[in-house]
Design goal:
eight-stranded mixed sheet, globular, 11 strands
Length: 254
């Protein structure tokens, strides 16, 4: 299990985002998420652990101090990235934090891109949606083509279904990036394989409907909380990526 102990972390070199300054809006002591993904680097949610969301003032103070230090060192972050210990849009003041982050970015590093990683559950919440539109990149999770695989891999903690989630993503009219993790194995004696041909075909149908700016494809990098999972070989990921490109959507394997 890996949790970020601080609000601001990095900058770190990211395979997908270059030099990335991370922002964790979740408690330092626990994961907070509306998914319980079998591969999550933050581990399983421990509901016995207490921990408060960081206050808006603390987030903005630490962010501004870090941006000031980076400016003094002539480090230019490629991205300010909201991810952290779970789902960043679950912070109750997420919209205000994004608004103020845009202000600070414009003041210190106007060319830096603001990116938000999200599982998409809160896309139908109007204040969250408006805040996401203020960001430069909305990177949204889509790991499955079927409802069955969606529930086995992402284990949603709400009543959301895969079609309703895709409808919410589609409402951005393609102004988003999809990130998709492929893996196989089993969990709770249930087989998991979202790289099998039938699953990929259904997933490609959703990609075609959404028409995102691009798709990020990857597999396991860290030890997942569900132990009986295996990574997908890069050659197989490239085969999937080529199918995405055939739809006219840019796709890269990471």
């Amino acid at each position: 299990m890996f949790l970020h102990p601080d609000i601001i972390y990095g900058p770190v070199r990211s395979r997908r985002l270059g030099l990335s300054l991370g922002v964790n809006l979740l408690p330092a002591s626990r994961k907070v998420c509306s998914f319980e993904c079998v591969y999550c680097e933050c581990g399983w949610t421990d509901r016995s652990v207490q921990g408060a969301f960081p206050e808006v003032r603390a987030v903005l103070l630490e962010l501004e101090n870090t941006l000031r230090e980076l400016r003094g060192q002539e480090w230019i972050p490629d991205h300010i990235t909201f991810s952290g210990n779970g789902e960043p849009t679950m912070h109750p003041e997420f919209p205000e934090i994004i608004r103020q982050t845009v202000r600070l970015r414009n003041q210190w590093f106007p060319d830096t891109i603001i990116a938000v990683f999200t599982n998409g559950i809160t896309l139908t919440d109007p204040p969250v949606r408006e805040a996401l539109l203020l960001a430069d990149k909305r990177i949204i999770k889509l790991d499955a083509g079927s409802e069955l695989m969606f529930r086995r891999i992402n284990i949603p903690q709400t009543a959301v279904t895969l079609p309703t989630l895709v409808d919410a993503i589609r409402s951005f009219s393609g102004d988003c990036i999809l990130q998709s993790l492929f893996l196989r194995g089993e969990h709770d004696r249930q087989p998991i394989d979202n790289a099998q041909s039938s699953e990929v075909a259904e997933w490609l149908g959703y990609v075609s409907d959404i028409r995102p700016q691009s798709v990020m494809i990857y597999s396991l990098e860290r030890i997942p909380p569900a132990k009986d999972l295996r990574r997908i070989p890069e050659s197989e990921l490239e085969t999937i990526a080529e199918k995405v490109r055939n739809l006219g959507v840019p796709c890269r394997v990471y």
